[in-house]
Structures
1.
Amino acid sequence: MSGKLVAAPVTGADTARARADHALSAAPVLEALDGIILGKSRELRLALACLLARGHLLIEDLPGVGKTTLAHALARVLGLRFQRIQFTSDLLPADILGVSVYHPERRGFEFQPGPIFAQLVLADEINRATPKTQSALLEAMEEQQVTADGVTHPLPEPFFVVATRNPTEQTGTFALPESQLDRFLMQIRLGYPDPVQERALLTGIDRRSLINQQAATLEPEHLRVLQQAVPAVHVSDALLDYLQALLAHSRDSRDYVAGLSPRGGLGLLRAAQAWALLHGHAGVHPDDLQAVLPAVVAHRLVARAGTGDADPGRALIEAVPVP
Amino acid sequence: MSRAETTARLGWVTGVIAAATLPHLGHLPPWVPLLLAACILWRLGVATRGLPVPPGWVRIGLAFACFLGVLATYGTINGLHPGSALLVVMMALKLLETRRPRDLVVLLLIAYFLVFAGFLNNQSLPWGVYLLAVAWLTTAALQQATRPRAPLPAAEALALSGRLLVGAIPVMLILFLLFPRLPGPLWGIGASPGSATTGLSEEMSPGDITELGLSEELAFRARFDTAPPRNSELYWRALVLDEFNGRTWRRSRPRSQMPLQADQLVPGGRVIDYDIVIEPHGRHWVFALDVPVGAGGDEVIQAADLRLATVRPVNERRTLRLTSDLAAAADLALPRRDQEHYLRLPPEGNPRSRALAQELRAGSADDDGVIQALLTRFRQESFYYTLLPPPLGRHPVDEFLFDTREGFCEHYASAFATVMRAAGIPARVVLGYQGGELNPLSGYHVIRQSDAHAWTEVWLADQGWIRIDPVAAVAPYRVSDGLMGALRAGEARAGRSVQAMQWRRQAARVWDAANTWWNTSVVGYDDASQRRLLERLGFEGQHARTLVILLAAGLAASLLVLALVLARGLLPKRRDPVVLAWAQLCARLARRGLPLQPGETPRAFAERVAAARPELAVRTRALARQYQQLRYEPDPAPDLRERFLSGARRFRPGGWSRAVR
């Protein structure tokens, strides 16, 4: 298997070959990631699917489980320009977006791009920053651009934010409001590694140097092609029926405080398409939808108190029959 | 609710009230509709012009006054007419105090009652159609009045309630056909005896039948089981008149009341079975082809003069099953006493006729010769058949025979019978109908009042009573073509296009066929018809039980069908064979202990089956893969569908599986 593939443009007449190419080109990426982050292949695939679906990823977990490593490894493997922003309570919007600085020799202001002007931005511990700073990041994410002093600066392509947050019970954090959470396509947890993987981690080479040794397995141009192929993945009426049944149940059921928003439904579809693309499916299967659903709804569905279900996504899947 | 909406609702309700009251206008005292109109106008004035609502004491006073008014008008508040008058009054007064939609609903429920009372009042087809339309309108108004949102446009409201009513048709038919019926007419409640007595009367003077000559009113209908007899044989016997006072023929009561003796009739072998549907005439007469030989049931008795009569007067439309023998002979041996009775004439009067009788008797060898001689006289001398005969004086028979020579059937029959009696031949006058028009659409002969006829019977030794119709000698068309034929032959009518007449005739036939169907099958559907229906369906005995069971089953079935039709919109569309085949496959696996888990995808299910039943793994996985391709992927291979369907249908998981989740 070659490490790099030439980008194949997607044409309607040749979708089967293109599909095979997409799956093949994603395989080395996943292989490389699996080599760095042990025992988290599902989370890695979700992260990649999230990126292909042009969404942003929220990782909620305790410190030290490999959130940063994952973001860094993704950037490395995909050959993306990487920036890490550590959110703190005194971080200001300008610290992220950039500032206009006066240049005396040119007698004018010049925009100094902030760390957000990267292809993969790791917003570490986003819930430690003040809401004002949080929303600055989230607005930039949504609009794919930064406006400063009336001038609009587009963010680079592709642009992918991996935000991490500590569980909100921890002290010194500002909870993200639901409206802001909705801007993340997925939320995943990494969790502790299992004993075998942990042993490999303890005895193996340092992850950081491993990442540094890792070469890019995909050209940025090719990544763009994959991203463009995602919305073109076939979605049958039967699958749309299933998706709508899921949305309807989330809205009608008394188990949830609020149902999935239309944006949530669209995100679910895009994520499922990306997942189908990664797995070489000609159309989105119910399995694809079910694979991404827990991650897509994790931060959107809030189980009503007393229903006693820790994973609202899993409960939703089990409540709606596959048509 | 906006003012315009309130007014729209009120408009619907007042329209319905007016429409439901219309059928009752004929019998309501004039003050009731006036009161209703005043109340409607006032209420609309309240809604649109801001008129004050009458205070409570006025309304209560009015209600009391109206109640007394109804009581004073009818002398009672019981019965159909006082009841419907009270309903209209209640509606009018209730209208004044309507405020909420609930009040409108009360009004509309009263309107439904009025519609029902309208049916009791009159069951004819046109009113039936009208009242159904009012019921439809009422339903639309009910739906408008109770609609939480703004009223619909009229066409939409009618369409919606129309759909509701169409949905109710199966239930209606089942209730109509199977709801246990009381013997006797439910509809007869409103018919007052004697209200329909047009037609024949029990005596005959010159000019009596002429009045009927132009009446197109229906007398009765008849349907033959086999080919109908020729028109010239259609003599429908109703009454026999055997007493003559010189001017008027009457029935001598004691004689005609005697029942027929079995030995009076000698069969002739031309037996015909038929049904007749008699329009209510308030008397006991039955119209039967000469000679009636039998009537089904205890309802009809036959008298010694061969006519049939009902036990109860015909106050409602009645269907009777009759048998006649066109060639039967009657009274071959007439007792001497009876012969004398049929020879009796008033002691004086009509001298010239008596003289004529003697003359004929002298010139003829036997009775038959006398009859033929008189008929020849009618035929050869200038006698005219006309609907407009000149009035006759003291000796009507004489004047007719020798002076005016213009007359209608009763003139001829009366004269003929008088001369026969004077000549010593027992004779009597028979009243009834002659002919009838076959409506090919319904298969019924329609006999109208204009077909009323009078003819004579003479008694000859060894031959019994012989029918002689002198009119046949004068205007043979009267007997073969009916009255119109006879009149056209004599009094040519110009200026009317034949085609227009034919078209009108055809339209009249359609209308008549519809009426026949309505009267016999709908209004005339009684416990006997119900019994016949059940027997035709193959249910024997225990009708009450069968009815209840059929009724319950029919209602349940039709409501179920209705529910399914209504639910169709909620259920998924007709299932794709692929989906069906997969569902059946899942069902087969479920019977073997491997039910599909909630939210399980085909692939996940196949994997679970493969784990539980390794021998099925290959086939199950392949089928699940094919199913996913067919269902979720674009442009599946052309033969994939067939391969999957045959594979899935052949898939038979034998044995039992241990449950694996």
2.
Amino acid sequence: MLRVFLTDDDEDDRLFFQESIESIDIETELVLFENGNELMSYLNADDAKLPHLIFLDLNMPIKNGLECLKEIKNSDKLKDLLIAIYSTSSSEKDIETTFVNGANIYINKPDNFNSLKTSIEKVLKINWQYHTSNLNRETFLFRI
Amino acid sequence: MKKVLISYDYSKTFASILKEKLDVLNVNYILVGNNEILFDEDLSKTLLDELESILKPYAISIIDDKNQALVERIKSVISHMLDDDQPIRCNTSDYLSQTLNYSYAYLSSVFSETTYTSIESFIILCKVDKAKELLLRSNLTLTEIAYRLKYSSVAHLSRQFKKTTGMTPSTFQQIIQKRKALINP
């Protein structure tokens, strides 16, 4: 079973995401976080059960997605976690900055259920292959 | 008409169905968590089949490690096929089914069920992964990489790369270079 985290400050977006991921055949265990602080304190705890994949919103108050990403990539314990940026921003600059800072996947938040489901499904499938096959993590870069 | 609302505890319901069904088999067992049954002794093939068939109506299935093992064999044949020095195989499906002694339809269904990906998509993912590696670790041009990975043309590789990763090979290269510069300024 894939353990998946989503960090997003928007409640509707979280619900929408949860419904989509639950409608997909791949079995997942989803844990929701409301902001970057919550995510980072969970991850930094000694007994944290680390996920296979983290979906991270960019625009969040207090600690935004890019700050979380940098913290994760600078931590010896967390740097190998796979990160999918999940944002409404389609600015090339945001996309490049997050990739350069270590994000593995960039998804634009789709505005309807079906495309969200398709995008998440694609991400989970690729992610699954990276966890079970001999593929190169260093070059794991996808824009969906 | 009368409407009756019910509530239930999923784990308890599940455990009592399992117990009810397993007791019929007359073997000693312990339930471990929600998805493991530990039997005192090895089960015969007949007993295992019986177990599978009595659980089936409840949409409970036995996870077969044999499938996982077959998937690993398929992956290893594919990775061998993609090695540089291998001759071009014009037909992957024939090659897989000859090497592994199963029909391609069977291999293909086991693979998709176990990995959520078709064999075809998996091969594309592996080829693009190889292309990424060659772009970073060699001085090969994209045309040379296309030739090495047996693409019919460089345009074909570029298209497949873009379609799979969402970016062009040169964007990919730039990102990785900037990433390296950030880590080792």
3.
Amino acid sequence: MDVIVCVKKVPDTAEADVSVGAGGREINKERLTFAINEWDNYAVEEAIRLKEEDEGTVTVVTVGGKDKEDILRRSLAMGADKAIRLDMEDPEDSFVLANVLYTLIKDQKFDLVLFGAQSGDFNSGVTGVMVARMLGISHAAMVNGIEVLDGRTKTSRELEGGLNEIYEIKLPALFTIQTGINEPRYVSISGIRKARKKELKVMTPADVGVTEVKPMLSLEKMYLPPPGKIAEIIGGSPEEAAAKLASLLKEKGAF
Amino acid sequence: MMEVEEGNFDEAYDVYACMQCGKCTGSCAVSLRSDLNIRELMRIAILNENGELEKHEEIWDCTSCGICTVRCPRDLKPAEVIVGMRSSLVEGGTIPITVRDALESVGTNNNPWGRPKSKRAEWLEDLDVKVKNISEGEDAEYLLYIGCTASYDPRIQSVSRAAINVLTKLGVDFGILGEEEPCCGSEPRMMGETGLFEMLVEDNLNLFDEFSISKIITLSPHAYNTFVNDYPECAKRLKEDDAEIPDIELEVKHYTQILEELIDDGRLDGEMMNEFSETVIYHDPCYLGKRNNIFEPPRKILNIIPGARCIEFDRREDRSLCCEGGGGRMWAEGTGTGERNSIIRVNDANRDEATVIAVACPFCLSTLEDARATAGYEETMRVMDIFEILDEVLK
């Protein structure tokens, strides 16, 4: 099974103080640290596990400048066989990015394409699905289990309310991977050094034949949500506070 | 042959000299409550049964206290054999998730706590005194190396602030690196991430060189130990591999050694302090005591505090009971069941009627604080770093 995994480098914003830049269209990035998108890391691990179970290759792909190569090196150290960096600015618009990735992937040999279900920066969760549509292949989003059958997969998707649904899907196909599908292995620093020998191909948009498409969305303004006005801090002793809280909950119809 | 970063086990650790006497297992701080059996692991190393290592989850129970190495009659280093075994697991990628996350965080955030680099200096915010920041070009005789835990853990941050207050009062010329301060690498090394440790040694020595830092005071015995005992050897090895390592000689001291010097120079004495009417029992940290034979300085400091009644644990100095905070154990719960060593320790202190357990290590402070609360001594006992005690008593 030949698998292509699309990966992206994103800022870690879980705990960092995020502020909007002067232009009002992007966040200030200077003090943030960047790493492989969490969902993508699970997708790379899943691809490598599929390869380890069966024959095949794993190719990781990213779009961006040379500073994005560390996530490819890391994926190669995990066990991917080759990496491709498309040397152009990450378009950020999902539709434009999907078009770029589609143009690159359509000429590659693959049975399966994996994406992270979403990316930790914009969290749109649509790029992978758009690429599947452009490639004209089956897809499943939020995938939390893959079993390979003959020319097909048994694929589990995570639904709302704790439900799973299972499909048999004919290959080639594209899945967007949910975190928790596996437990990604640790990649050691010496492992990354050793993986320097593996192929990392840099391609230009012209090499791939990327055509310009218009973004479907345009970003007007970015701002932090204004603080709400309806929060109430209940003071007093624990007994008083509990009594007040209970009466408030009753009043609002919680019981 | 079992592959480790430095070569094979027999060459790296001389394991064939092991006569299986069992002194290591008999001394081990966790063998009573864990399956960790260092004699068995030495045997595995001798026989090169390396395929079996994944099954030995208890390899992650070792606190790296070093007592097995101290007591080995053949002068072997069983504690290092465990590091080597962890290293081979790290290279294979299959390690406890919490250890994995800690190591990944060192790679991206330069600390194992998963906290952003940009918040490393937040503990400074409540401080009244002005501190020199060497990374902003200010000159100072000493770098006060805070370390990851004392930078981020809310309980331990109080030690960092106390250190600033005390050293400033005593007129020590020091500065910090603020947000630019890196992880020292001690915990990654003990968790077996040799490549990451080497990278940190190279980066950190270049950083110290860039800011002309040659004298360092550490809060943590773990940072002290790695700067003094691991850095020179690692730097030498890296130089042989043509890495760009500056020729600097670091003079590193644990803070209790600096305070001892101040006492000897007449710059710190009981006259400068208010009464501290407490029964104080000192807990020797493994990395200061067992690993570096520094027993006297902390005791000397506590003994000059007026009003303090200093008592000792039965198990003290090189027999001190490890708190189980080292060797990556802050990020690995361990397989052990039964009473934690830290609980045994606070119970011992309570039996001896101590009102303050004095410590000189952030991990000891963290584990003993937890144990104090768990064992129900919140009203009767405090766990304090020596810097915190001085901050409280200095006039």
